[in-house]
Amino acid sequence: MTDFFISYTHADTAWAEWISYVLEEEGFSVIIQAWDFRPGKNFVLEMQNAATKAERTLMVLSPDYLQSQFASPEWASAFGQDPQGQSAKLVPVMVRSCQPTGILTSIVQIRIVGLDENAARKVVLTGIDQKRAKPSARPPFPGTVAHVEHKDFPGSSTAVQHANAAPALPTTLMPALKQNPTDADKRRFAKAGFETIKAVFEANLQSVAQQEPRLEASFEPATAIDFRAELFLDGKSKCFCRIWMGGMQSADNICYSEGRHMSGDSCNEILSLSLAGGLHFQALMASFNFDRKFDMKQLSADQAAEYLWQRFVSPLGS
Fold this sequence. Notes:
The chain is α/β, with parallel strands linked by helices. It folds into 2 domains: 2-128, Toll/interleukin-1 receptor homology (TIR) domain (Rossmann fold); 183-317. Helices cover 33% and strands 20% of the residues. Strands 6-7-8-9-10-11 form a 6-stranded antiparallel β-sheet, with helices on one face. A hairpin with a 2-residue loop joins strand 7 (226-233) and strand 8. Helix 3 (43-53) runs parallel beside helix 5, helix 5 packs parallel to helix 8 (183-211) and helix 8 (183-211) packs across helix 9 (301-313). The longest helix is centred in the middle third of the chain and has 29 residues, at 183-211. The two termini are 42 Å apart.
């Protein structure tokens, strides 16, 4: 088994190679596309083998990574093997500031944004170490630290700078201005929500098929914004759904249809954007009993994913 599979986007190749080199300097084995996927090899098969055979998947986390349509299957594979994080199969290393959403928010990150090389190297190696992070030296006793006011030397340039500095404005001069989400904000939120739903379905399908021998699972992405999920019970199709973005008056809607009787883009549920108290999803056709667990007018991406998943598997209980 390889120790680490490095999952990254082209925009972060330099970071991925630097992290890989640091890991191999410490004796870890690494699979990285830039070094190991040689001309003539099948890219898809190489990626599948790397994600399957590696003990852990290290995500080079950045805004580009979160927007990538190809990164989700890579980290979803590791998440599906360890959904509770007990084995730390999925290790996010944030190299550029970004805001992960959905199930990624629950995974503790290694952050090296803004650090120099020595500090970043230490943080990465400390972060991947699964031992307890107890400091090697006793922390200073908080009760004995005396505050000593620093006095500027009267002839220093600092005093001159302070004298010429503009007076600070009071922080209560005006309240924070409200800013409505832009169309770009809405599109990013909708895409991130769809990726969360997609990742949850793929991971859950793998988990239930492993836990219950009578179940077989199928996950079929049709496009980057359209997938189908199916569960077979004792070989018979029991649960089937299609989930996609777009249609029904808005490209930012997420549509859900269950069963094979639906035609075209007809659906049983539409998740549209709600601006009440910030960006959320709202279920426009919420009639399912499970909807009482959440406020169906203000769903987070995780709640939307759980809502649709419970609708999807409900036939198993009948």
